[in-house]
Design a protein that fits this description.
- The protein is of the alpha+beta class.
- The chain contains five helices and 16 strands.
- Strand 11 and strand 12 form a beta hairpin.
- The protein starts with 5 loop residues before the first strand and ends in a 7-residue tail after the last helix.
Length: about 325
C-alpha cells in the first residue's frame, strides 16, 4: 500500500460568494462541485480543482457565514501550496496579484529548492504558488482555460502543505511508520531564527506528494476560523487499498471515523498525535459520476443518499448566486 500524494485540502469560509469570485475569477480554478456539507446539510461545500476535478488538484471550502477569525499557531495546517509550471508563471502571478489587489510577497523565495510566491486570499488563508520547473514526481492536473490567464501559467494542482506543530516527532512518526512517508530534505525557516522545516514525501514524490513539518514550540495553539484549513486528505488509489488502510489504522490502534461514504470518494478521518485532522480519500469514482464533465459545478449536486431530502435541504440553505 502506498499513498499517491495529496488528494485535497478543506478550508473554512464565511463568504461563499466572495470565495467563488477569488478562486475562480482571480486564481482561475474551476468550480467542479457545488454541494452541501454532508455532516451539516445547511452549509454549502464548494470544490475547486483543475479542468476535470482530478484528485490532487482540489481545494474545498465549507461555507459558514458569521465565522470568527483564525489565529495562527501550532496544531495547524498553516500553508497550502498550489502548483504552476514554471518560475515565469510566478512572475505572471506576481503582476496579476499586484493589478488585482491581492496581498502577496514581492520576492520569489526558495522553499525546499523550489521557486515560490506567497500570497493570501481575502480571508487571510496563507497560500503559496510553487513552480514545478519540469520536476519529476506526481503528475500535474489539466489547466482550466480562461481568457485572462495564459494556459502555460494556469494553476495545475496542489503543492506541499505545511504542518506547524510544537513537537514534530509524534507527527513524523505517524507519517513515516504508519502512512509510509519518507524523509527527503530540510530547509531554513523564512520566518526568522527558528528550526528548519522538514520535508516528507509519499508515492512518486515531488510537489504534489509532500508534507512540510514546521516546528514552532514558541507559538500558542492555533484557533481555526474563516480562512483556516480544516483538514488535509491523501490519495488512496482504489477501494481495495482503502479497505486495507481502514484495517491498518485499526491494527495500529489509531482512533478514526471508520469508513465514510462521500459518494464522490470514500474517506477515513483521524487525528495525528499533535491533533491535526488527516483524511484518506479514494481517487474513485470522482466528480463526474453524477454530472456531465462539461457542466460540473453548475447546479446543486447531492449524493444519492441525500437526494430524497433535496426539497428540505434546499429550503434550509441560504440562496447562493455564483456568477
Amino acid at each position: 500500500m502506498q499513498l499517491l500524494g495529496l488528494h485535497h485540502v478543506s478550508i473554512l469560509t464565511g463568504k461563499a460568494e466572495k470565495n467563488y469570485e477569488f478562486y475562480t475569477k482571480i486564481l482561475g480554478m474551476r468550480l467542479v462541485k457545488k454541494t452541501v456539507n454532508q455532516d451539516n446539510t445547511q452549509s454549502y461545500h464548494l470544490f475547486y480543482a483543475d479542468a476535470e476535478g482530478t484528485p490532487g488538484t482540489e481545494v474545498t471550502f465549507f461555507d459558514i457565514p458569521g465565522l470568527g477569525s483564525s489565529y495562527r499557531g501550532t496544531t495547524d495546517i498553516s500553508t497550502v501550496s498550489l502548483r504552476v509550471k514554471t518560475t515565469d508563471s510566478l512572475l505572471f502571478w506576481r503582476e496579476r496579484f499586484k493589478q488585482l489587489g491581492v496581498q502577496h510577497d514581492d520576492v520569489i523565495q526558495k522553499r525546499a529548492g523550489r521557486d515560490s510566491l506567497a500570497f493570501r486570499d481575502f480571508e487571510g488563508t496563507r497560500l503559496i504558488l510553487v513552480a514545478d520547473n519540469d520536476e519529476d514526481g506526481v503528475r500535474a492536473g489539466i489547466p482550466w482555460k480562461r481568457e485572462d490567464i495564459p494556459v502555460e501559467h494556469a494553476i495545475v494542482g496542489l503543492g506541499p502543505v505545511t504542518l506547524t506543530v510544537s513537537i514534530p516527532e509524534p507527527t513524523i512518526g505517524i507519517l513515516t511508520e504508519v502512512m509510509g512517508f519518507r524523509y527527503v530534505s530540510s530547509y531554513p525557516s523564512l520566518e526568522g531564527e527558528y528550526p528548519n522545516l522538514m520535508v516528507y514525501a509519499t508515492g512518486e514524490g515531488g510537489s504534489g506528494a509532500e508534507v512540510h513539518i514546521e516546528p514552532r514550540p514558541d507559538l500558542p495553539r492555533a484557533r481555526i476560523g474563516r480562512g483556516g484549513v480544516h483538514h488535509v486528505a491523501f490519495r488512496v488509489p482504489n477501494e481495495d487499498e482503502y479497505n486495507q488502510w481502514a484495517m491498518r489504522l485499526k491494527e495500529n490502534r489509531i482512533a478514526s471515523s471508520g469508513k465514510v461514504e462521500r459518494f464522490y470518494f470514500k474517506a477515513l478521518y483521524f487525528r495525528e498525535p499533535n491533533g491535526i485532522l488527516f483524511e484518506l480519500s479514494t481517487d474513485t469514482p470522482g466528480f463526474a459520476t453524477d454530472e456531465p464533465l462539461e457542466t460540473m459545478g453548475q447546479k446543486l449536486a447531492l449524493p444519492p443518499f441525500l437526494e430524497p431530502k433535496r426539497q428540505e435541504i434546499e429550503a434550509n440553505l441560504r440562496p447562493l448566486e455564483l456568477n
